[in-house]
Amino acid sequence: MKRIMLLMLLVALTVLSACAKSGKETTDGHGGHGDSAPASSAGAEADKTKAVWKLSSETPQAKSDTKVSIAIQDDKGAAVEKFDISHEKKMHLIVVSDDLSYFNHIHPEYKEKGRFEIDTQFPAPGGYKLFADYVPTGGSAVTKSERITVGGTKPAPAPIVPDKDLTRSVAGKQVTLTIDHLMAGMQANLTFRIVEEKTKQPITDLQPYLGAVGHVVILSADAEQYLHVHPTEEKAKGPDAKFMTTFPKSGIYKIWGQFQHNGQVFTVPFVVQVP
Ligand SMILES: [Cu+2]
Question: Is the pLDDT of residue 194 over 50?
Fold first, then answer.
């Protein structure tokens, strides 16, 4: 028995070291926000846009309407006015609290002269990070971020602790996340299996959310790495929803999966430690 365990350990170590080696070779050098977009974006113009962020109040207050305005400009300060529709929208805005306990995915409306706007509320005082995703026509996908502070006494941060068990119940569903290859710099396939919480009956009639089986956002614990995640079977209906990404470096990451069933969108968070 001991000998078998030892043998298994040896095999595991060999596989691990092989992965670490090929990991180095396949690291594609995408830095910054950790964009792991495939080669399809190659050949498109390098991003020259900038986002000018403005809030309706210098110090927004918790639980009160705040208008977020995001003006997209080129490198000469002129308005960028043409955007491709990506996942059914011209812009996706992700809002997270510093401790990643709060997550919101909203869609600012295009106004004019490169300006997007949305009214939103922040749930509590403290720091937040906002990520705007857009595709300027003729360019590739861009993510711009901004840190803001909501006034007042901020609550104690919730610790970001890796989940021991990647099964979680939300909105009457039970969602299990499996990741085939959790390692920095490697392609990782994420599978969310969605069943009814009570009956464990697999759900096979997921509705498209933003034009695909689901939408997944991944952030490093410090919110410095914003990962782009791509569904591998956009038209899937469940119980499995599959996605692909690359974790740029080791550390703790929070993953939010968003799916739609019976007209209701639900968000399921997981925290993983990437070796
Ligand atoms: Cu969106």
Answer: yes
End-to-end CA distance of the chain: 28
At 77-94, the pLDDT tens digits run 999 999 999 999 999 999
Q: How many domains does the chain have?
A: 2
Are 33 and 145 in contact by the 8 Å Cβ rule? The answer is: yes
* Cα 212 to middle of ligand 1, angstroms: 11
Order the strands of the 66-73 sheet from edge to edge: 50-55, 66-73, 115-120, 109-110
CB 92 within 8 A of CB 133: yes
Q: What is the CATH number of the domain that holds 178?
A: 2.60.40.10
* Cα(109) to centroid(ligand 1), Å: 11
- Are residue 186 and residue 135 in the same domain, yes or no? no
Residues 171 and 263 in one domain: yes
Q: How are beta strands 115-120 and 126-134 bridged, if at all?
A: unpaired
